[in-house]
Fold this protein.
Amino acid sequence: MKNIFAFFLIIQCLFVLAQKNIKMYPERNGDSIAYYADNLEIYPVSLVFKGQPELNNMTKPEVFKTTQVIPAKTTKMRIAYFVLNDKQKSWGVKKMPGYNSYFGDITIKNYDKNYTYDLPFGKGKAFWIHQGYNGTFFLTRTKIL
């Protein structure tokens, strides 16, 4: 019984820790469909789509960008917009492409490459540093100069 309880506790923890930092959802308004994104994080998130949407009897009035940046603390930012072609035929979005999300704005080209970052540790001491929060596992021992 203890093993079953522990198993369910671990599964629940995994769902809590595996939160998406972005939410994308469609809204139908008359004869159009818009896709929106919410970013509740304190930093921008970049979305990189793996292709173009597949549409049934619909057009894209604006170009679908495969890379889009959602600013921090943003709700209901329009990602895509589709309009009905012929009211006599069936219509809809067959498939929205999958996407990867990345922390920060990956479109930034100009930034200060000489900026020095200071870690909040004492100088001359060594510390173990771990990667966390949706990152790949990373462990290193670093000496602060």
About this structure: The chain is about 10% helix and 40% strand. The mean pLDDT is 80. The helical segments are 2-17. Residues 57 and 88 are 10 Å apart (CA to CA).
